Amino acid sequence: MIKTAVIAVLVFSAALPARAERLWLVIGASDPSAAALARKTKTLALDTPDSLVVQTSDCGDKKNFYAWVAEAATSPEAAHAALRRVRTAARDAYVKRCDTQPGTLLALRITAVDASIADVPETAVNWQENDRISTVRPLPDGRAIVIARYFAKVKDDPLEGRRERVILAESSDKRRVLEENCPSPGRVAMRHGRVAFHCVREEAADNLIHNVVVFDTTGEKLAEIKRCRNPKWLNELVIECEEESVGPDGQLKLRTIRSSPLPPLPSATSSHQAP
To answer: pLDDT digits over 93-111, tens only?
Structure first.
C-alpha cells in the first residue's frame, strides 16, 4: 500500500510542469510586429550583442508582443543597474518582471527574432510574419528542438533569403546546431534520445522533395535518407519513411520504405529515453 502511494506521488510529481524562473527584463523597445521591432532595434542590437527579442507570452502574458531585451537579469538590483546603462541609448527603457514559462525560447535564452531579420528587404513579397519568428518544439525527454529563422543575403535566391536553423537544446547553455539550413522542418520523431525529421532539399515539377536527417543523443548526424519524408521509428535501429518520386506526368508518388540499420545504441543506455 505504502509502495503504491509512493509510486503514485512520483508519477504525479513527474507530470507537474517545471517551476517558472523569475527574471527581470530590461526592455528597450517593443512592438506587436516582429518585422517592425527588428528594424526599430537594428542599431541597438549591434551595440548590445547579448540582447534578445522576447515574446511576452513566454512570461505567461495573455496579450503577446515582441520586446527587445538588453538584459535578462536574475535580480531587480541587477536589472535597475542595467537600466541606467540602456537608457543612454533607449530613453524609454523599463524593467518588466517575468515568470519565465518552462520550455520557451526565453527559458533557453534564444532570441525569438534573429537580428538578421532587420535586413529583409521591404520589397520581399514572399516573407510572412511567421517567417521572421523562431519557434520551439519541446521533446518528451525535456530537451527541445528550436527552429531559428533568419535572413541570408544571397543574390537571386529563390527563397528570398529565408533560412531555418535547427537546434537541439538541453538548456540555456547546452545546445547544438543540427542543421544550419533546413527549409520547412517536419515533425520530430524521437526514440531513445535519437531524433529524426525531414527538410526540403529540392523541387521537382512543383513538388517539394525532402530528405530525412537522423541524429544521436549528442547531436551527431547518423544518417541522411534522400527523397523521403515523415520519418517514424520502426525500432531502435530502423526508420520508416515515405519515399518520394515524381513521374513523367509531374505527379508525386509515395512509397513506404525502411532505412538501413543505424549504428547500435551505446551499451550504457542514454538517459534520454522515449516515453
So the answer is: 999 999 999 999 999 999 9
Domain span at 249: 184-275
In the sheet that holds 94-100, the strands lie side by side as 52-55, 66-73, 21-31, 94-100
- The tens digit of pLDDT for each residue in 238-254 reads 999 999 999 999 999 99
122 located within any domain: no
Return the C-alpha cell found at 111: 532570441
Using CA atoms, how far apart are residues 166 and 184, in angstroms rounded to an integer? Answer: 10
Q: Is residue 53 part of a domain?
A: yes
The whole-angstrom separation of Cα 27 and Cα 79 is 10
Final residue in a domain of this structure, among 100, 121, 140: 100
Give me the number of domains the chain comprises.
Answer: 2
Name the pTM for this structure.
0.87
Position 266 in a domain: yes
Within-domain flag for 190: yes
**What would the pLDDT profile of 174-215 be if each residue is shown by its tens digit?**
999 999 999 999 999 999 999 999 999 999 988 999 999 999
Question: What's the rounded Cα separation, in Å, for the pair 124 and 5?
Answer: 60
Q: How far apart are CA 199 and CA 227, in angstroms?
A: 10
Residue 180, C-alpha cell as written in the block? 544550419
